[in-house]
Each structure stands twice: as structure tokens, then as C-alpha cells.
Amino acid sequence: MKLAKNLSIAAAGVALSLAAVSAKPAQAASVNFLSQSGGTYNYNVLATGTPTEKLNKFSSITLSDLEGVTGVNVNSSFLNVLFFDANNVLLSLKNATANTLTGNPFTGLDFSVISSSTTPGSVSFSVLNSGSGINYTGTVTGPVASPVAVPEPFTMGSSVVAIGMGLWMTRKKATATHKA
């Protein structure tokens, strides 16, 4: 009897520990990668809590750590492109009904990032819900730079030593010729 009680307490403790480890922080919104076609990356904004989550008017959506961004297409009357450069995109929510937008996914919050990079990778996003002061962050797939070949340190060091020895020998020879 006592063994069964202790075993059930231990099992409950393990179950609660596993639940706590796998728990995610509360979020109301996230950026979701939909698809890629060449250098065009398609996204939408999801409510990650309940289907009645709200985004307020003037909320902002930011993608950072991008590479080679050449344009942004907004497929919605609710989104406005505030700014983009080669590495960042900043969007703002506008024209939301009654100053808020609800749903899961948020209807009409689709956009595309056009990039010279066709290599997908992990990029950062944040959604700042205006008026609530709550910032939701995470990572999502996006355009990243292709790997660049970097010379090995030994090759670079050997080159420096060879150039130094060549200059030293030229100077030594010039000194010897000048003395003679």
C-alpha cells in the first residue's frame, strides 16, 4: 500500500517535471513561414494563444538577421511596410476593425520578403502589440547568406611569413650591395 502511494507520487512528480520542461512562454502572436519560391519567402502572422487573440492597431512586426532583402510584398490591406533594408523588415498593422485584429491565423496578415539569397535559415522575428506593451519574439525561416569561403589561418600566416622573409632578404641584399 505504501509502495503504491510512493510510486504514484513519484510518477506525478515526473509527469509535472516533463510538462514544465516542455512548456513554452505565453505568446499571442508569431510569424509563420509558409513557403519559398526562389528568393521569395512567404509568411503570415499567427495567433499562438486562443483564436480570439488580438493585435492592436499600429502593432509592429519585425524580421531581422536577414540577408540580401531587395523588396517586401504586402498581400493585405491591414499591413503597411514601414522600412526595409538588406537585413531587416519592419511592418505595421493598420486599418484593423475597431482598432484590433483577431483570429488564428490573423486574417489578412500575409506578406512576402524578396531576397537575393535563396538559402533558407533561421532568422529572428518580433511582434510588438501596440498598447499592451507586450513583445513576442522567436525565430522563423528566412533568407540567409550563403556560406563564404574563408582562408585557413595557417595559409594566411604562411603568406605573411613568406612576404616578411622576402622583404628582409631584399633589404639585406640591398645593404650588402651598398657596402661594397
Short description:
This protein is α+β, with helices and mostly antiparallel strands. It has helices at residues 2-22, 153-179, and strands at residues 29-37, 40-47, 54-56, 60-64, 69-74, 79-84, 89-93, 100-102, 110-115, 119-129, 134-144. Strand 6 (79-84) and strand 7 (89-93) form a beta hairpin.
Could you describe the 3D structure shown?
The protein has a five-stranded antiparallel β-sheet, with no helix packed on it. The protein has helices at 2-22, 153-179, and strands spanning 29-37, 40-47, 54-56, 60-64, 69-74, 79-84, 89-93, 100-102, 110-115, 119-129, 134-144. With 180 residues, the protein is of the alpha+beta class. The model is unreliable at 18-27 (pLDDT under 50).
User: Could you describe the largest sheet, including whether it forms a barrel?
Assistant: 5 strands, antiparallel
The radius of gyration is 28 Å
Anisotropy-based shape = elongated
- Average per-residue pLDDT, rounded, comes to 74
The SSE string, one letter per element, is: HEEEEEEEEEEEH
Which secondary structure elements does this structure contain, and how are they paired or packed?
Elements: H1 2-22, E1 29-37, E2 40-47, E3 54-56, E4 60-64, E5 69-74, E6 79-84, E7 89-93, E8 100-102, E9 110-115, E10 119-129, E11 134-144, H2 153-179
Antiparallel strand pairs: 1-2, 2-9, 3-8, 4-7, 4-10, 5-9, 6-7, 10-11
Keywords:
2 helices; 180 residues; 11 strands; alpha+beta; 4-stranded antiparallel sheet
